[in-house]
Amino acid sequence: MSREPMDAAAIASAVAGRECSAVEVVSASLERIDAQEPRLNALITVLEDQALERAAFIDGQVASGNDPGPLAGVPVVVKDNLCTRGIRTTCGSRMLENWKPPYDAAVVEKLEGAGAVIVGKSNMDEFAMGSSSEHSRFGPVSNPRDPSRVPGGSSGGSAASVAAGYVPIALGSDTGGSIRQPAAFCGVHGLKPTYGAVSRWGLIAFASSLDQVGPLSRSVVDAALTMDVISGCDPRDSTSKGGGFPRFIEGALNPYVKGTRIGIVREFREGVLEQPLAKAIEDAALALGESGCAMAEVSLEESVTFGLPCYYIISPAEASSNLARFDGTRYGLRMDAQDFVSQLLLTRGAGFGDEVKRRILTGSFVLSSGYYDAFYATALKVRKKICAEFDRAFTSADVILMPAVSSFPFKKGNFDDDPVGMYKSDLFTLPVNLAGLPGMTVFTGLERSGLPTSVQLVAPRWQDQRLIKCAAVIEKKFGRPPVACGGCI
Amino acid sequence: MEIDDKIVKRAAALSGIEIEDEKTEAMVEFFKELVGHFQGLESCDIEGMDPFFDPGGSPYPLRGDEPVRWEDSDKALEAGALIEGTFFIVPPISGAGVPDES
Amino acid sequence: MALTFETVIGLEVHVQLSTNSKLFCPCPTDYIGREPNTFVCPVCLGLPGSLPSLNARAVQLGVKIALALGCFVSRVSRFDRKHYFYPDLPKAFQVSQLGLPLAEKGAMPIFLGGLKKTVGITRLHLEEDAGKLLHGTPDGRLSGTSFTRVDYNRAGIPLAEVVSEPDMSTPMEAREYVLSLRRIVRYLGASDGDMESGSLRVDVNVSQKCSDGRVGGRVEVKNVNSVRAMERALEYEISRQREVLLSGGQVYRETRHWDDSNGVTRGTRGKEEAQDYRYFPEPDLPPLVIDDSFIRAVEKDLPELPWEKRERFQAEWGLSSEDASTLSERLDLAEFLEGTVAHGASRGSAANWVKTEVLRILNETGLETEALPFTPRSLGALLAKVDEGSLSNTAARGVLEIMGHEGLGLEEAMRKAGIVPGGVKGDLLTEAVRGVLEGHPEETALVLSGSDSSGKKRKYLQGLVMREIRGQAPVGDVSAAIDRELDRMKGFRE
């Protein structure tokens, strides 16, 4: 068996076809993790024994002639804000440093039901708040393409795990760009599905109306495979809906895009982007044109102008609410105190990092009496305007092509004294969350520096398969994301 | 809009978080900067916009009334820092907050 | 001129709904007496990553109560999060309804000594219950301090909150309102409506309007755990507020607690600033859409309401206000009464018997009418006989007792009691009369000789006959039969 990290599709096929064992594949994955973790710090928990046990179980299934599932033996990493029963789930925070959930997230159930083997819980910005994966109780994550730089966030650990070849597939969560931005920074594909397409049961909530779970991968086929497994209505999540999705794998394998209208965003034409990223958009448009797509121009002026403030009112508001439950009583950190209020204050003071505190305070402020109308209620209406703008854009386009990020991955520590500065790195991703649309970062190449370029595709709600198809076309032209140097052992 | 440490202190109290004195100024600066961005929304015409975000689709079917016992309540109890028997326990509750009616 | 006052009272009543599972999760709801924290799950414990899913039956019951209260049911309503920190609130917010509640603008009649008054209902909304706190000292391990124990079995139980308009002005009206609301929710099978066990909870809002134009602040009184306690709390608080105002002081808007053992309300220590609950729409739940067919289905299920029954019993059946009230108190009793009439009894005797005999059995045994060993059909048939005179009240009572104790049907019980179908008449009656007269020759002779001037002996003999035939003939017939027999005996003598 090749020592090169394999794609999920190849692994599943090899394991089911008994060309190799799940134990072999998982062992190789654990070796790569072992070798690179000191440098990357992409994982908070490595599941060595459990993973090998599970792999052995999968091999047993195969041996007995049972169907092991479409992801048989595939090692995967899930972000540490997804509950894994009996396995520490920390959200990168001291508050949940030792918390072992008594239940599995829906996506974890689905992955394991499909035969995948979870080998690690990935490092992340604390409670998913951040764009660099530097705000973690467990230390910052390094970008496998250049360890002096950030991998992006908050799913930086997941993106790095895929880029470094630990695993072919990782699950992240995306609230304002937390899958797509680290995917862009690490040079892998990253997909945020339509809001409601994937169950949030067991995803520790940051901003309930914005959060979605999605796959990061080194191939469009793998992203499609994962979407086929994890998407679907879940009665435990009242915001999830059956999308009536066609099988994504079909679109990945046979990406028919002729006649698809690609919307190029007018506002990104002039010097907003680093030149290579602007070129990536042009080249991607060309590739799509070659496959029969038509080009159109769309405007996202309101999204670009109002998206940031709108997002930074709504998401902290929901976060302040979702994180209010941490008071030391039922789970998580508890600081000793003489009375309940002191316990609450001490626990939350010690358990939350600075960025989380900033956002919680912001959230309480915009929801508070006297400020609710000016801020939160206003932001909700602005959100509707942004939705409407995308609706208008989608009358002249079927898929929008725009940047995922405006610059290359920044150096670690770059925004240490400028938290609001970091918020701006989500400019192109967060409007997509506000509108509940599906968006995907697609890798387009590596610069000589080793740093990656990418583009973002956005589709109307429930048209996620258009992303897969267009991504497949782009991937065909630019090639699959390579494993970052040092990935092979 | 005047952003000062009174506003920050109130936000902190509502959040159940205490900001140390030495960090208060930084927090006030942060608030000032962020609220400055928020005020950019004033130029957005929101006339007639309905504030409710509805992810769309047909009304979700409601859950039926079949009771189901969750088998792992003991595991949930294990996660509590202070337990007595099958109770969670908390230190005494004084004045603040909404008092007990049980 | 002397200062006079007008009291303004509004009530907020929380009703636990009789669903099998909780409002937002499938945990069972029969939590009373269970071991703490065993009827819980990730949702009602508020574990990170958990999400709510709304119980359809809770919505149905909420709509049912709303319709019975004449409310307008919102076709679209929303849930909101209400934030505060307290150990019995697992998520540190309660999911409730603020801006768009389930129902609004209804009314409920209350009766005081036969007079009807209508109290407006401002709104009805759904919300989840909190856990329970138990204060006290734990085991020696944590000696020295007194900790509080928390049990989340009750967290997430569905509540309907009914808010009245401030239309009441006396403790009695408040009492009648609570009793009426309790009656309705029990009628509808929507709740046990029991204050003692906590399935019905009341918060009182009371203020004074002075004749000199001053208005006292609205005081909320919490911790009233029974109707009687509510009345006493109101009496105390009204008196306290008036005293303050009479002495020239101000009554401030505040929350006070009723201390039942000392009979006073107490302000909360160190008045904190008004709570800022930071309400915002619950993002984990889509809008609750209720369409016309849902409402029609619930409407179809509505029984005639207690006050409708009461008014009908008074107006159409001619019952007294008191009897109408007693007989409409419980739905099963009222339906038993109506069934009895439907099966042959007259309204008068049915009302009488149900209010005495049946109600007595129900109160003694604590049963519902369904569990009674006799049915409206058999009682109706029995009373029909009494009405037509073929059975005396005494005899009927005897038959009913046999039916009750031995669970026999009407025919069997009558047979056992020695009752003849169709009553005792003709030869049977003659035989019975003869038997009595022959068995009591002294008294008979006295009557025959005409020395029974007061008629006492005759009455005595008649009584014996009645007893003999178990009252199965009208008194007139028995008297005539006795006359005939006496005549015959006279004939023999002569």
Number of domains of chain C: 3
Query: In terms of quaternary structure, what is this?
Result: heterotrimer
Shape of chain B: flat
Taking the sheet with the most strands of chain C, its summary is: 9 strands, mixed
One letter per element, helices H and strands E, the order of chain B comes to HHHEE
Average pLDDT of chain B, rounded to a whole number, is: 86
Key terms for this structure?
heterotrimer; A: 489 residues; alpha/beta; Amidase signature (AS) enzymes; 2 domains; eleven-stranded mixed β-sheet; globular; C: 494 residues; alpha+beta; nine-stranded mixed β-sheet; three-stranded antiparallel β-sheet; 16 helices; 16 strands; 40% helix; elongated
What does this structure look like?
The complex is a heterotrimer of chains A (489), B (102) and C (494). Helices cover 40% and strands 12% of the residues of chain A. Chain A has two domains: 8-301 and 385-478, Alpha-Beta Complex (Amidase signature (AS) enzymes), CATH 3.90.1300; 310-384, no CATH class. In chain A, helix 10 packs across helix 12 and helix 10 (301-322) packs across helix 13. With 489 residues, chain A is of the alpha/beta class. Chain A contains 16 helices and eleven strands. In chain A, strands 1-3-2-4-6-5-10-11-9-7-8 form an eleven-stranded mixed sheet, with helices on both faces. With 102 residues, chain B is mainly α. Chain B has a domain at 5-42. Chain B has three helices and two strands, in the order H-H-H-E-E. In chain B, strands 1-2 form a two-stranded antiparallel sheet. The longest helix of chain B is centred in the N-terminal third of the chain and has 18 residues, at 21-38. In chain B, 28% of the residues are buried. Helix content of chain C is 40%, strand content 19%. Chain C contains 16 helices and 16 strands. In chain C, strands 2-6-7-10-1-11-12-13-14 form a nine-stranded mixed sheet. A three-stranded antiparallel sheet of chain C has the order 5-4-15, with no helix packed on it. In chain C, strand 13 (254-259) and strand 14 form a beta hairpin. In chain C, helix 10 packs antiparallel against helix 11. Chain C is elongated, with a radius of gyration of 32 Å. In chain C, 46% of the residues are buried. The chains are: A alpha/beta (489), B mainly alpha (102), C alpha+beta (494). Strand 2 (87-90) of chain B pairs antiparallel with strand 9 of chain C, so a sheet runs across the interface.
